[in-house]
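<instruction>
Derive structure tokens from the sequence
<entry> Chain with its tokenised backbone below:
===
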Amino acid sequence: MQFVNPIRDLETIQAMKDELRKHSVRDLLLFVLGINTGISLLDLLNLTVQDVWDGQNAKQYLYIKDERTEEEKAYYLNSKVGEILFEYLSNNDWKSEDYLFKSKKDCRPITRQQAYRIINHSAREVGILEKIGTHTLRKTFGYHAYYRGVAISILKSILHHHSTAETLKYLGIDKTEKRTVKVDVNL
């Protein structure tokens, strides 16, 4: 497996969204769901409509059972994910058991290779020269969550890492780097 990087720049993330939207809302949803939840590509591709949609709106949480630990984890579906889900799912006749990222050829989900091609092609179109792959989605999520104040211990758990050092390395973060955390309780 080659090392890939997170997308650090918010303008580049927006450019990726714009580029993916030109191709398809499905591809945009793959990107937006990946960078906003940090779930693995395999879990993303195996999602069904009923996992994220209550019939009229996006669910607030996505629940995924960890096959290794049998533990069910909840992933928050924020408003950005909800907007794209609404756009994507309200335009077609979906069955609750349909795969969310259905292939255009059949009823199965797109492959890992197809997901890689989608992300990589859009990255090149917006001028990203760094190595980009499907892990870029998880890394982008983790990188931005860390810089927005999410504790590294929480990210370690979400990413299924064994140590803080592993998580920091995975996200491309230098431990000695100073960061400003805005804790805005705003009561």
User: Anything to note?
Assistant: The longest strand covers residues 61-65. Residues 10-23 form the longest helix (14 residues). The radius of gyration is 17 Å.
